[in-house]
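Protein: cholesterol 7-desaturase
Species: Streptomyces sp. NBC_00093
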Amino acid sequence: MRLWRSHDTVAALPRDPRADEYPMPIVPYGWYAVLRSGELRSGKVVSLHYFGRALIAFRGADGRATVRDAHCPHYGAHLGAGGKVVDGTVVCPFHGWRFGADGKCVEAPFATRTPKVSLGGFPVREHSGLVFVYAGPGEPAWEVPEIPETRSRDFAAPIDDTCRARIHVQEMRENIVDESHFHFIHGQSEPPVQEWREDGPYAEARGRISRRVLAWDIDNTFDAFMYGPGVMVVRVHGPVLSVTAVALTTPIDDSTSELRMLYHLRKPARLPFLTPALKLVFRAEALGEVREELRIWDHKIHQARPVLLPHEKGIRALRRWYGQFYPSGGTNAVPGQPVRTGTRGGGT
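Structure follows.
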């Protein structure tokens, strides 16, 4: 059973102008999931908006996913607004120009020669039931590994929840190493003790968390594997429930980021019929916690030099590791886009 809900927060409080300012670029270089595989059917055009760009996704004649700029280079029509897929090519609804999965124009009606133009795009990988794109210059030097739980029969179909907040994707990722917030937002008895490891574009935070349920403290262990700036897989193991949470963080534009959570619950071996009920209870609790975080995210400002307590050293470690995904010059250019500044309020 697939459960889905999108809940965008409404700013009920006046926003401090500093809440829209960040010293780092808006789009860290790396892999981002923009679709679940089942959302991209053959013969269909899907409109997207990420990285401050209008995009489309479709499948070529070989069934492979491609993600391209949405606007036709001929006269600017949006290919997702009435465009069709014919024989693995996307057809412009305005003048019938056709573009292949590689972005190249393959036909322009009434032209004596096919124009040598193309749609900008991204390197694409598809596995684990997700379509990933690489936002950054050149070809990617590293990959997101497959997530085995996504194809295991031991796990239920995922709970799928998407939200958007006015916050930088880096701050979304810092949540996993913000030990103190686990007590106040997630109901942990005390901040978890964590270990931090990193290896190039990969990092791991692992530890133990304890949650009080009625009169008992329930101990769980967790391993959070980070694959670049946009993908994190958290495996939580406990005496009651084991969950693999796939956390996908993606920049939308200068002011908004998306968090998509896919929760894969391990089916109880002896009582598998309880799985639907467990999913409902788990999802209700998870949604409540996410709403609390959204309310905070929508109004917090970025503290470049936070006053960290000794047990909060993981925030400093993550920021240092995360910095590798930004260009050294302080600006970044997503392929096909003008260079943007690090201020969320706009700029080109």
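Remarks: The helical segments are 169-174, 181-184, 275-297, 313-322.
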